[in-house]
Amino acid sequence: MASTSRALGRLSAPSMGVARLQTQAVSRLLSSAPRRALISESRQVAVTQQIRCAHTETTPALPEPPKERRRFRTLRWLWKAPLLASLAGIAYVGWGVYEERNPGPQVEPDPSKKTLVVLGTGWGSVSLLKKLDTEHYNVIVISPRNYFLFTPLLPSCTTGLIEHRSIMEPIRTILRHTKANVKFYEAEASSVDPERKVVRVLDTSEIRGDVIETEIPYDMLVVGVGAENATFGIPGVREHTCFLKEIGDAQRIRKKIMDCVETAAFKGQSQEEIDRLLHMVVVGGGPTGVEFAGELQDFFEEDIKKLIPDIADRFRVTLIEALPNVLPSFSKQLIEYTESTFKEEKIDIMTKTMVKKVTEKTVEAEINKPDGTREKITLPYGLLVWATGNAVRPVVKDLMDRIPAQKDSRRGLAVNEYLVVQGTRDIWAVGDCAVAGYAPTAQVAAQEGNFLAGLFNNMARTEVLEQRVRELSGSLNLEPGNAADISKEIEEHERQLRRIKDIKPFHYSHQGSLAYIGSEKAVADVSWFNGNFASGGSLTFLFWRSAYLSMCFSTRNRLLVINDWVKSKLFGRDVSRE
């Protein structure tokens, strides 16, 4: 143990010396720490910079992220286009609704201005009223119908595809949007006296007051009463057929269709009677008759077959036309397409067939065969719709008898190139009651109304300026001090008179013809540059709907028609009788 202690003592002596040396070195380092800290910090910064420079020189640069391709940016904006279009459409519709519900103030009539009387609320009259500057006239509208009827969609009302009020626009709503106040009388014009310049009107409403008949004087008269259905003197037509010209006709047809269906489904009905009741005959191969036949076939195929399958296969539609083909105003290509489509839909077409007599349950007709012979046939029917021919209304016939120049006219009031009734100076005629050398269509009547509006506006502006020039010329010598100013104003008015364009004679511009042929197909014969563009099929059906929708007179009508189309597509047509 003693030897071990001595060994440890010998070893610890040098170790303690080393420790003292280390303690001294540490104290010297601590005394010089601040100075060396600054040096080491500066060296550290320099080294860091050198390392960064070396790293930059030796390490390649990272590639830039690829730029987004342009087509992807286009696609990114493309999905927003429908959203923006929808918002724009909603804003447009909202603005249209706001304008219709909030018309501006109107100017009160001025007794010193001329009185313009308009008879009728059809295509010609309403087109005139919408474009006429009513501030220049005291306008009075007379019609037994206090609404405008969009007749191209009338066949759709017969089967419940469209409700009848969706294609009716109140005439007072239209007149409320004119610049000046327009008077409207719901009455029927019974006669016109061109010598005394008065119109005799009769109140035909169910509720009558103390005064039911009166006279209305006029300075200018526009006759736009249209035409009534022509029976061509065939016995039984007026008593047993349904016409298709007014909204009441469509409602009557709709009720009779369901009457035939429900009667055919009655227990114990014979097979012959079921075949008769479910045989629908349409007379007239024009657009109205063709569209009604197509709508009727759709109604049975899409709705009646699902609800009453027991008798649905007995349903038949027959179209009778006196001419060699249907849709005579269309191209030959579209006529053939229509006839082939009707054959697929099992609609019978009987051309070169003349109706001779109509009874309560049968129609007697005569067919002209290719060999020149004639064959008489008898067709039993449940419903017979007469969709052909126009006849002169009594008020037009009375006016023609009062004007000697109209003695040779048979189809209506003969007019000149400015639509002035021949033999008069202050009576104009538009629409089906006027004979201007054009077909009696809504398109012709609308253009005639627009023409008269431009003519009357031009006449009013010219008269105002000429009157002002006469007044200034008369005061030129009475006020010599203002002669220079008056002469300058006269020159300005004369310059305005020269700028007013002379209205050229009326010329009808045919925009095309459209017709629905059933099975969601339509035909269109549209004017294209110097020729015509003919098409038919499902895409044409979409064009037919969009064209008629754009032709509606108000935003209200457009929204109601769209709602009816969607409702019928989702839930089917309404088959209730009333």
UniProtKB/TrEMBL annotation:
Keyword field contains Transit peptide: yes
One Pfam family linked to the record: Pyr_redox_2
Keyword Transmembrane set for record: yes
Broadest EC class assigned to this enzyme: oxidoreductase
FAD/NAD(P)-binding domain location: 115-449
Keywords associated with the record: FAD, Flavoprotein, Membrane, NAD, Oxidoreductase, Transit peptide, Transmembrane, Transmembrane helix
Catalytic activity entry: a quinone + NADH + H(+) = a quinol + NAD(+); a ubiquinone + NADH + H(+) = a ubiquinol + NAD(+)
Enzyme Commission designation: 1.6.5.9
Entry's Gene Ontology molecular function annotations: NADH dehydrogenase (quinone) (non-electrogenic) activity
Gene3D superfamilies per UniProt: 3.50.50.100
Top-level lineage group: Eukaryota
External alternative NADH-ubiquinone oxidoreductase-like C-terminal domain span: 510-574
Family indicated by similarity: Belongs to the NADH dehydrogenase family.
Protein name: NADH:ubiquinone reductase (non-electrogenic)
Origin species: Neurospora tetraspora
